[in-house]
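Design request, tokens follow.
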């Protein structure tokens, strides 16, 4: 991976270096145009070639500079900035002498072409960031930039760099920053300044994504209200940015008239959430911080949008010890699924990935979702520590009833549990093939393929369903050859590699190896 990324970077840099030879093309064009002999056919051909090359070069120039993988190609235009190599993956640019007018003009011309800029693992000396503002003298360096993905490693550089990089026409901004170990007052001041800089310099921002992995335990959401001044903001993502999302922040977010996507990586307040309705046009809601079912229900009660299409409640903070882990019981699943089905009839995607306790069955919870005929993706992952005191989750054919009758538009279905008991017969696969013609991925917790559940393999129904991935966690297979024949008869287009992925059980992987041979013989 690193080698390929390095080769791409070298190739990309070579393209930018080659484009600096445009003056050579211009010299050729001028020289040939001044040729005294009008009958010189070679000269005319060269003149035409030079003009074509020049036109192509200008067009390609604009395309190449439209999206930059790092700020390096721009800074290399300033000949007095020199790279200082410390190791293979680390380099810096040190400011030497004064930038010449020619270099600066070339820098501004290329910078005006940039539409997207991404941070790469490189370090630019503070002297460079100090030099450029003086040279710019108030000019906007990237006047046409639409998208900026940036990372700050030094807290003191956040506002100065943002002031240089942000343009008034910026539409999407993704910032990853580290505030280090500093005093709470300094942290608050930097976050406040960062938010104010973004709001003041990019008033037409449509997407804002803030991420930090080293924020201490302080409540910083009080510095986010200026975001409400972004009247075109449609996507807001706050990942690992807050310790707790307080009431004022939730009230502010709910009042945004254009917000269609909200991703929150923060604990919700322990006290009851305010009794208010908002989020009038919200289409996607993701909560990623060990959310409790109680808080999810309170948050859903605040959503008045009739067009909510996508919800995700993820236990996505295992790497952090800041969060209080909330365990979901069977009634929690039932209550959340019931609320989703009752109030949001247009839902297309549902993802619930949480830690559980005492969950013996999910049949009723999934049955509650059967009325959502528009569902395209259902992804439910229940993770429970495999202790003897914890019950296994019972699964049966009844669990898959909604797939057979209720979800004709379903494209993706996954149900994952730590341990399971019960019996899921191959007949479920036939019902799924008939009831979900658009299904492309099916991840099952269990499948039992035995003489008792199959009967005569030769009489088993066949289909030509376009399913691409079929993965089973816990499989009980008596005859690999017979099971492979059943699966191939129903789903002849399966991707072998993805169907035996990381989450597949050992028995299922063994059967898939046989299925590989069956597919080869059929072809």
């Amino acid at each position: 991976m690193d080698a390929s990324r390095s080769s791409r970077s070298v190739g990309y840099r070579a393209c930018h270096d080659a484009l600096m030879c445009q003056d050579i093309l211009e010299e050729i064009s001028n020289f040939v145009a001044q040729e005294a002999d009008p009958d010189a056919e070679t000269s005319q051909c060269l003149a035409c070639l030079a003009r074509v090359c020049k036109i192509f070069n200008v067009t390609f120039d604009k395309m190449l500079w439209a999206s930059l993988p790092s700020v390096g190609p721009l800074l290399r235009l300033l000949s007095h900035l020199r790279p200082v190599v410390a190791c293979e993956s680390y380099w810096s640019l040190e400011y030497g002498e004064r930038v010449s007018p020619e270099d600066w003009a070339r820098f501004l011309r290329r910078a005006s072409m940039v539409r997207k800029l991404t941070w790469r693992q490189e370090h630019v000396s503070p002297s460079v960031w100090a030099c450029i503002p003086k040279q710019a003298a108030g000019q906007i360096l990237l006047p046409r930039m639409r998208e900026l993905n940036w990372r700050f490693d030094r807290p003191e550089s956040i506002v100065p760099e943002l002031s240089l990089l942000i343009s008034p026409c910026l539409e999407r901004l993704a910032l990853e920053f580290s505030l280090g170990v500093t005093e709470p007052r300094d942290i608050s001041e930097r976050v406040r300044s960062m938010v104010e800089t973004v709001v003041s310099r990019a008033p037409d921002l449509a997407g804002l994504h803030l991420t930090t992995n080293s924020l201490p335990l302080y409540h910083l959401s009080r510095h986010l209200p200026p975001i409400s001044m972004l009247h075109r903001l449609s996507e807001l993502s706050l990942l690992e940015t807050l310790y707790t999302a307080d009431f004022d922040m939730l009230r502010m977010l709910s009042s945004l008239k254009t917000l269609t996507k909200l991703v929150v990586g923060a604990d919700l307040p322990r006290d009851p959430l305010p009794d208010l309705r908002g989020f009038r046009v919200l289409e996607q809601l993701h909560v990623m911080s060990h959310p409790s079912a109680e808080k999810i229900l309170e948050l859903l009660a605040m959503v008045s949008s009739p067009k909510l299409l996508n919800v995700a409640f993820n236990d996505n903070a295992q790497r952090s010890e800041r969060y209080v882990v909330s365990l979901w019981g069977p009634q929690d699943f039932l209550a959340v699924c019931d609320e989703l089905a009752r109030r949001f009839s247009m839902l297309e995607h549902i993802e619930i990935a949480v830690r559980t306790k005492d969950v013996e069955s999910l049949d009723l919870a999934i049955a509650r979702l059967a009325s959502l005929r528009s569902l395209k993706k259902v992804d439910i992952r229940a993770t429970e520590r495999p202790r003897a005191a914890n019950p296994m989750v019972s699964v049966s054919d009844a669990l898959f009833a909604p797939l057979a009758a209720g979800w004709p538009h379903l494209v993706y279905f996954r149900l994952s549990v730590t341990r399971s008991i019960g019996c899921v017969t191959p007949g479920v696969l036939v019902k799924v093939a008939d009831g979900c013609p658009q299904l492309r991925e099916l991840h099952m917790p269990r499948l039992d393929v035995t003489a008792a559940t199959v009967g005569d393999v030769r009489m088993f129904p066949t289909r030509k369903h376009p399913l691409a991935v079929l993965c089973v966690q816990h499989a009980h297979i008596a005859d690999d050859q017979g099971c492979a024949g059943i699966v191939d008869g129903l789903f002849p287009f399966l991707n072998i590699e993805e169907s035996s992925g990381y989450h597949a059980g050992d028995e299922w992987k063994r059967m898939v190896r046989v299925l590989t041979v069956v597919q080869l013989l059929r072809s």
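Comment from the thread starter after seeing the answer: thanks! The longest helix spans residues 41-66.
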